[in-house]
Every structure is written in structure tokens, then in C-alpha cells.
Sequence to fold (620 residues):
Amino acid sequence: MSRDTTAPLPTGLGRRDFLAAASVALSGGMAGCAGVFAEEGNQVNIAGSSTVFPVTEAIASAFSEKNPTVNLSLSKTGTGGGFGNFFCAGRTDINNASRAIADAETEQCGENGITPIEFQVATDALTVVVNPEADWVDCLTVDELRDIWRAGGAERWSDIDEDWPDEEFELYGAATTSGTFDYFNEAIIGEEENHRSDYHATERDRTIVQGVQGSEYAMGYFGFSYYSENPDSIKALSIDDDGACVEPSIETAMSGEYTPLSRPLFIYVAKESLADPAVRDFARFYMERAATDLVSEVGYVPITEDQRDENLAKLDEAIAEVTE
Amino acid sequence: MAADTQEASVDSGFGQISRTKDVAFRLLALAATLIGIVSLAALLLNVAVDAVGWLDWGFLTNPPHPNPNNAGFLPAIVGSIAIMIMIALVTFPLGVGAAIYLEEYASDGYLTRFIQLNIANLAGVPSVVYGLLGLGLFVGLFNIGYGSVLAAAFTVSLLILPIVIISAQEAIRSVPDSQRQASYGMGATKWQTIRNVVLPRAMPGIMTGTILALGRAIGETAPLIMIAAPTTVFGVPNSLLSKVSAMPLQIYNWASYPQTEFQYGVVAAGVVTLLVILLTINSVAIIIRNRYQQRT
Fold:
């Protein structure tokens, strides 16, 4: 391969020039060996929760329209998968998380010299759904839910209520790499019991929708946005925490009535990555937009303006530390 | 016609002549042909109908978005093309080089036959296995970044390399030996013979094989998933180490979105775009090949 003349770019060259040069080099099939291993600048890598994915996708899309030269990558790995395999291994700059980071994960990050900074970006109403044909059930108590989803608990609908059909549950839930699984496990199952393992576990929420649509005796759980997009084909159950049934909705999640399944959604930014201007710009853009309709359009509750200001202050503080 | 010629040999062990069997077999063969073609046509029609209204200029030039009306395909298109160019740059010299060695230089010993057998077997290995290899080799060992343009291109290159080698070998083998002998007779060296006689004659065949292999490469999804290529990318790759998505990966991702507009509209628009780009690349390559063919 011949050396390509555009390769050793002087630093100071504008982004647009670099992009033009890079695309010429690529499309001409002249991508020479020198220069391509140049620094990985202008790149923001994000992995993590599939629940937070649509929020980040919406914000990244808006960001990309203003900054078309920044290369932003986004994958669905589940919260735990994202922390373990990508974020704490130093492979991504930002992790989407539908639960707070665990101690073991903070430790793993620390060993690799990565300091995660937590920002709440939205609130979700984790939604339990059944088939619309299942007319016998509209509301479940937390205890009943625990009995259905714990290991060694109920096997049939009639085990919960004798009037309900004598049919086995067909259960669809989040995979164990998922923050949705962790949150459900913590909020419903609790520490004394284990989440059952004989259910269809997936990181693709669409599969849960299809599974629940397919069987009258099915039940599943996932983030509210997947329910709000399919309100006719699946039925959301109200949750009775302390005597009153509350249906999942943006309003009840915002007001805090929908307990215990309304949960905060986070992104974690690696403090060290903030030294990169592209990551810095994106993080600031994210914090500003998290309080807007961009979030409610994908089916979650935006953070309040106070929370936003708090996030921005936290971000600026971290940026000041790494850029000094 | 076949029946007429067989009439003379009724007693010679061909079995009894049966007009019905003749016609029946013909219909059977026709049905076998039609099932493939009709289902392909139905699929294309179905996808094309679904794509109507979704496949527009905005779709081709926007970044992805959770709202189906704003969703765009641009980064995936650019990613796929960047990967394709890299794959062509990697596989063509390697594939043709290996084919020339095996056909022109290697002596027909056990080792050559062993290598030959392995290449033939490698062409049939499932793509997900190559993905695993790419993950271990390029992402793990060489550390050229998970999901980067280079990692993706190298991994898929490995996958199509056996196909390129085998078809290049076929093309080289089809060059008549008399031409080589004539070249040697003129006092040409082996290298001169290969360069001036064998390669020009074999080139159209080599290119056909490479084009078909590239066609397979552009649709590959499993190896890209294995090397953890991100499902969604915004902006265009700005170096060979940039993270890259590809069209089939983005389509796979869209298929899991909650809105039905994604499953029926946006996914279909993506599939049509993928097919059109694939056919365009193929036809451009075929035109180049035909030009080449005429010149020699």
C-alpha cells in the first residue's frame, strides 16, 4: 500500500477539513497505513441499558444534527453488561443505566482508574403487562407479584386467586444483565427471595411484547415506553403497594404515586473521558435536554429544572477538575 | 424430444416410456423454479409496499431517531460502504495472491492438498464463528478497538476470503496451459507469464467471484454483532478506528423497537435501501469488469 499524502495531518486543521480529507481517503480506497492509527478523537462511545437507550438516542440524534462531525456510537448491552464489559473496562465514555451503579462495579471501575459520575436523566414507570384477553386481572399487589416472580412461588394463575384460571404462567422478563431485572428484583422480590430463573429472559423488550401478545396466560415487565407504544395490544396492570391500585403512567410516576416500580434512569459519565471536548459537549447537551419534551416523547418523565441545574453544576465541577 | 430418442431403446434397460412421467417431471422442475422466484418476488413486493412513504430523502440523510418519522439511515449507509471498501482492499490482494500461489507455484503435494481441503471447508464455516474469531483476534489480541471499521472489515474479510480464493483459483485454472507454455517458450519468466498471460485472462473470472463475495459481505450481521459493533451510530466515521454500524445491524436494531411504524415502515425502508445499494455496487463492479474484459 502506498503512503497517502493526506495521512499525516497537522493538528490545528479544522474538523471539516479533516472530515473531507478522511472521506476522500476512504472513498478513493487510498486509506494508507500511516495516519489511520491517529488519535481516536471526536468520538463518544455509549453502551448500557436498553431502557435508557431511546432517551440517549433521541438526545444523540439532536446533538448529531448540530455536530455532524462527532462520531457517536450507541449499543444496547444491558446496564450490568455495559458497566462490566464496556464502561469499567475503559471502552466507553458513558453508560446508560436503569439502576444505580453497584458497589462491585464501582470497585471494578476504580481498579481501571475510571471515576463514574452519576446523572439522573429521567424517571420510568416499570410496567407489568398481561394479554388483553386476561380479563380476570387488572391489579396486583406487590405480594402477589412477588409470589409470581420468585423462585419456588406460584406456578398457576389459580395459585394466586382461586377464581382465576387453572393455567400455568408464561413469563417474559428482562435478562439478568439488564438493569430492569435488577430493579424489579430489588423492588419486588427483595433480598430474602430469588427471582425465578424459569422464564423467558431477553434484552430485547420487543420480544416480551410479542410473547405477551401471543398467549392469554402470559405476563411480562419492561420500561413504560414499550407499553405506551402498544397500549392496545397489551394490557398494563395497576400495582397495589399500600391499599390502592395505581396504574402506571407518566403522571403517576412523576407524582411519585406509582410505587414501588417508578424508578430513576441514569447515565454514568467517566470523569476521565470529560477531558475529551466531544464527550464534554455531549454530556452538557444531554443534561440540558433531559428536562425537555425530548424525554417525554419517548415515554419517560423528564427531570425537573432543579435537577437539571444540579446535574449541570456537578458536570461543570468535574470538567473543571479534569481540564486543569 | 428425449422420449423420441429413447423409443429405440425400450428393451435396453431404460425402463418403459411414459409420456406422463416426462410431462410430470417437467412440471415438477418448473414448480421448483417458480417457488423460489415467486417467494422472492412476493418478499420484494411486500417490503417495497411497506417501504412506501418511509423511504424518502430524509431517511437517507438523517441520523437515527427513536421517532419513526425522523429516523434516518445515513450513518449505517456510510458505515457499510466504508467497511465494504476496506474489505475489498484486504481480500482482493490476499485472495488473488493465495490463488496464484496455489495454482501456479505450489507443487501438488500432501501439504497443498491439505491447504486446499481446508480452504474449501472454511468457505462453509458459519459466519458467527468468524465473528468469534474476529473478537478474539482483532479486538482481543491486536486490540484495534471493538466495533471499529478495521475490526469489522478484517473479520468479514476472513469470512469471504475462502470464497474469493476458490473462485480466483477456478479462474486461473481455466487459462489454457498452452498459453503458459507459449509464454515460457518465448523466454518469459514465471512472474512475466503470470503478469502478462495468466492474470489478464483470469481477471474477469476473479472479479466475478470477488463481487459475489462482497455481496455476501454487505449483508453479514452476525460477525458484526460478535465484535460488538454498536447498533446505532451518529455522525460519520472519522478514522479507521471509529466505531461503525452497518445497514443490516441497524435494521436488526429497528426491528426490536416498540412502535409498529418501525417494524413495518422503517425496517422495510432500510431493507430496500440495503438491496438497492447492494445491486448498485454489484452493477458498477460488473460494468468495470466488462470494460476490462473488452480491453484484453
Remarks:
- The beta strands of chain B are 232-234.
